[in-house]
């Protein structure tokens, strides 16, 4: 799907939805909300398929979870330390829908370098999986245990209430910052240097 195109299937121009009154929203966030009732396939992974409706629902669940955890006085940054698994896309979707900035945490970093990346990017929460969580044991990062979300531990997501999904389906939550950033990617520095 070309998320930047305003052209329909027959080449006709589609009207853009009105901008959010709470904060700027990315083109991807608008397109995803437009497809929140679309049963067409959006994600194929191994033997599973998620529709656009499923994708948007999963994104809202994660946006709601982060909204419960975050400090509204700080930038809305959530670190994602994941391999190429569906939950990685679900968090990117959450960012696009809610205005949360998704910070890609590179799993090749170790120890102090990994901790510095998490701290330098002002992450308020960190999303990881059980197979990568061990990397954090030697990284003195500032994320408290209650803000460490392990995606393959279902207990971590039971509190992600669907009431947030219902509340925000038609309006992007106000995260309190003007920038319409969606993703923060840190490039690897030279050997022995900190990421940029």
Note the topology:
Elements: H1 27-34, E1 41-45, E2 48-51, H2 52-69, E3 77-81, H3 86-98, E4 101-104, H4 111-120, E5 125-128, E6 148-150, H5 162-168, E7 183-185
Parallel strand pairs: 3-4, 3-5, 4-7, 5-6
Antiparallel strand pairs: 1-2
Helix pairs in contact: 1-3, 2-3, 2-5
In short:
By secondary structure, this protein is an alpha/beta fold. It has helices spanning 27-34, 52-69, 86-98, 111-120, 162-168; strands at residues 41-45, 48-51, 77-81, 101-104, 125-128, 148-150, 183-185. Strand 3 (77-81), helix 3 (86-98) and strand 4 (101-104) form a beta-alpha-beta unit.
Structure overview:
The protein is α/β, with parallel strands linked by helices and 196 residues long. Helices cover 29% and strands 14% of the residues. The protein contains five helices and seven strands. The strands form two sheets. It has a five-stranded parallel beta sheet, with helices on one face. A two-stranded antiparallel ribbon has the order 1-2. β3, α3 and β4 form a beta-alpha-beta unit.
Keywords summarizing the entry:
single chain, 196 residues, alpha/beta, five-stranded parallel beta sheet, two-stranded antiparallel sheet, 5 helices, globular, disordered N terminus
Counting helices, strands and paired strands, the structural category is alpha/beta
Give the neighbour order of strands across the main sheet. 6-5-3-4-7
Which overall shape is indicated by the principal axes computed on the Cα atoms?
globular
Determine the number of helices (DSSP H or I, runs of at least 4 residues).
5
Described by strand count, sense and barrel closure, the largest sheet is: 5 strands, parallel
Number of strands: 7
Question: Runs with pLDDT <50, length 5+?
Answer: 1-9, 12-24, 158-182
Percent helix: 25-40%
- How far do the termini sit from each other? 31 Å
The chain-level mean pLDDT equals 75
- Rg, nearest Å: 17 Å
